[in-house]
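Expect sequence, tokenised fold; for instance:
***
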Amino acid sequence: MVIKQLNLGFLSKKIGIDNFNRLKNAYSEISLDGYFNDNISDKELAGILFENVISDDFFEKKQNLSEFYFALPEITQKKINNDLNVNSGNEIKWDEKTSTYFIEKLGINEKFRWRKEKNSNNTNIGYSYFEKPNLKFKKLKDYQSGVFFKVENYLLNTPFSRCIVQMPTGSGKTRTAMEVVCSIMNQTGKDVLWLANTEELCDQAFNSFTEVWHFLRQREGAGINHMKLKSINDINKNIPTFHVASLQSLSSLESDKKLTNFGIIPTNIELLVVDEAHISIAPTYKIAISNIIQQGTKLLGLTATPGRQLRKNSGNDENQELSDFYFNKRFEIETGNELPIEFLRTRGILSNAMFISVEGSNLENTMSKKEIDSFRLNGNLPKNILDLLTNDNKRTSIIFDQLVQLLDKGKKIIFFGTSIAHSEMIATLLTIKGFNAAHIDGNTGKFRSKIIENFKNGEIQILCNFGVLSTGFDDPKIDVVFMARKTNSIVLYSQIIGRGLRGPVIGGTDTCEIYTVFDNLLDLPSNNDIYSYFEEYFVNTND
């Protein structure tokens, strides 16, 4: 494998000397426990980290390709020159032929393969058009139908209406909301705009609309995923259209102008849906949302936990601000005397969650009282404390040991690291151990979707990340959610553990293990507590 031939200076420059030293120290600590039989060289260690953390578009930049070439031994350079019919690394172009050669002959990772841009014939271009068919219905589950009918009635019959739908992660809030969306489009003939804050959530919404509208359409209609479709030429603007866009793309005072650029007529938006509604009151998002709905557009927020904070602080209460923004109107599933989580668990909608604590670091004497108070208030740890956790070899060794035991049992794991560097390190150490492990983050590039696909189909056993998979990612067959990320956000924590709570009735597992690393900071609440924590802020619409 050519990666083993690269000089250490090149590798250290590309992966960062701090990242390399962190990995080497952790590797040495874990080796003391007998986990690694062979003491691999620094160069090989750095090479494995390189393949795990470097973006898949690395070789598409000519300077990177050239530097890679000149970091190889001279004999390998000559072989490349001869095989590719070039005189030096400066003449090499990254194309299909070159990438195939690098992968098949030199042994670099498949993720670096050159790919053609998607053409207009690709089915996932972000636009769907539907002709008017015979009416067909696809029924919701009973508990979803109860929410649907109440929300539909409220939105269709209440001018300037705003409300939140609260349903636990895994109970089908996107599917339920999409029936509301289709009803609005069918009955009003107007557009619906769906906003989310990640690419995965936008894709999830677009795919859900495509499926549901196929069954419920009563007229011509269209769906546009503006995260994928950049050109809006030749699109029929005279039919009701479902638009999906990112909150970030509209987060400014010029949201109307940006809507026009998307081909959206602001006055034709009947309903605005905000996924993960708790982020609605972030200042820039709140301005954009307010601008869009000011002429009468109705507002629907979706969330599993309608609040932003674990504790109320003195002064401005963001939880109350969020509730007020949605007119203190909440709809939820009717569960009688049962707690919502228990209601869904006993019916096989949600899996039986087992909470297991993992020993972490003792930071009691490391953090100042001011830092501890700040964390308890807003959930943000200082960078120096995150660095301490990331670099704590004993902590890493404990996490690694627990993961190895789980992987040896065949468990399918999604891992949330303490930081991006920590996630990269864990994935690399597990790769060295021989497991099919992968890391993704916001810079993973175009291969990110392929890594997720490989995880879902079982080619990858553990998928490591820091923050990109907390929302918009569904794989019902996850056995373990492993939480090494530190947070005091009740919303984020519930989103993360929700990745593994799909029950057997919807194709998931009967039991999911939730491992949480405790670092002597703050006990996190149980899942039922998370769900009901913000209940006091909303009018109970089930009465």
About this structure: Residues 199-216 form the longest helix (18 residues). The domain at 127-334 is CATH 3.40.50.300 (Rossmann fold). Confidence is low (pLDDT under 50) at residues 118-123, 310-315. The first strand starts at residue 127 and ends at 130.
